Amino acid sequence: MVALEALAMVMMLHLLGGATTGISAASKAPAIDFQQLNVRETIASTKIHPSDARGYRESLAKDDESGGEGKWKLKLLHRDAISSGNSSNHGHGHRLNARLKRDIKRVASLTRSLTGGGAAGVSYGVQDFGSEVVSGMEQGSGEYFVRIGVGSPPRNQYMVIDSGSDIVWVQCEPCNLCYRQSDPVFNPADSASFAGVACSSTVCDRLENAGCHAGHCRYEVSYGDGSYTKGTLALETISFGGTVVRDVAIGCGHRNRGMFVGAAGLLGLGGGSMSFVGQLGGQTGGAFSYCLVSRGTASYGSLIFGRATMPVGAAWVPLLRNPRAPSFYYVGLSGLGVGGLRVPVSEDVFRLSEEGNGGVVMDTGTAVTRLPSVAYEALRDSFIAGTLGLPRASGVSIFDTCYDLFGFEMVRVPTVSFYFSGGPILTLPARNFLIPVDEVGTFCFAFAPSPADLSIIGNIQQEGIQISFDGANGFAGFGPNTC
């Protein structure tokens, strides 16, 4: 069990060498904390070689290795790391623009989906396990991907991981309407463990939009951005390396459309009973951990399930529950910091109301952190004040604060921090908030205003940080390890 005394600690996560963080004592001229951003190295990380992509794919094809202590680890890569695109129309600027368009739709989807309910989870007899995850750059998707086996014998498939939704589903034959995926479409007739779910089943009753056709339970999920999946519900075996989980309720999608190109389907990791985490129930205690590898690195992140994933020494913050959105992981945020100084924003801006409005969600499917306008503008203005010596550039897409760093090798920028309720302070590495938007030196401040009161901490800000969710005890953890 993790020692919850860490809740009382103010923990600074120094994720970039040389960065100093913290709040200075009151004085006439408070000191500002800065850190270094390696411009040349960060730009270089946006350029992907086809040989790099081949190496990642070959590694992913190998069986996953045990992570020890009953855990199984799946590979996690940033989407840029496995991109094989080296033509002009697949450059970093093109990929980022497409990613931001998807991101806008994702945020609109989340802000429109604050309804729903859930029931008690189903328990499966499994040990702690996990898997490595890859992101979907090469596949044409902005999400992170995991490689798992579906059926008996297992058919390896790329699956999008999504902490903001619940249903586990794959595209299935016969495919009446399917998007392009990297692997052959799953054929239930080839699996000895595939079993359809009857309309009268209690599992079918837990679906929000359950239907019935010829006695078979039918599901339908719309993601608010025009993406959807429709098909039949089934019980199937899911494999993670040497670990086998039987009787997982999955959607067998015969009509699917949306932003899932490349992946075979989606692995819902939300807080509801139908998510993969919810179905594992008491065996894992709703506990899982992930580390989203930073773009441009040749290493793997991870997705690991089970109580053994909970790290000692993490900074823990309470998870908040919103009955209107049980799938979302809400955390308490009390404020923001720039240069080690609090930004003048009221804590009420981030509060989750009794009616279920507002609040702060951790989401793997959103790229750029969104903040209510009053909070975003205060954060942005404080950051601009700390970067007056850097040449400005025109805004790009959703970013209104950009810099022309062409010709620079290193720059000093003020630190940016999240102040969580209960004390912990998460100070981000510079590459998690000042990102390249092209290959010629244009960098933008990677935050944006939210279209509603909802705040979303996106995956760019989460990169390189070990993040854990302890559903049984109601806590989210940050650190102490990095990817």
TrEMBL record:
Native source organism of the sequence: Tetracentron sinense (Spur-leaf)
Molecular-function annotations in GO: aspartic-type endopeptidase activity; DNA binding
PANTHER family cross-referenced by the UniProt entry: ASPARTYL PROTEASES, PROTEIN ASPARTIC PROTEASE IN GUARD CELL 2
InterPro entries with a match to the protein in the record: Aspartic_peptidase_A1 (IPR001461), Aspartic_peptidase_AS (IPR001969), PEPTIDASE_A1 (IPR033121), Peptidase_aspartic_dom_sf (IPR021109), TAXi_C (IPR032799), TAXi_N (IPR032861)
All copies of domain Peptidase A1, residue ranges: 144-479
GO biological process: proteolysis
Identification of the protein by name: Peptidase A1 domain-containing protein
Cleavable signal peptide: 1-18
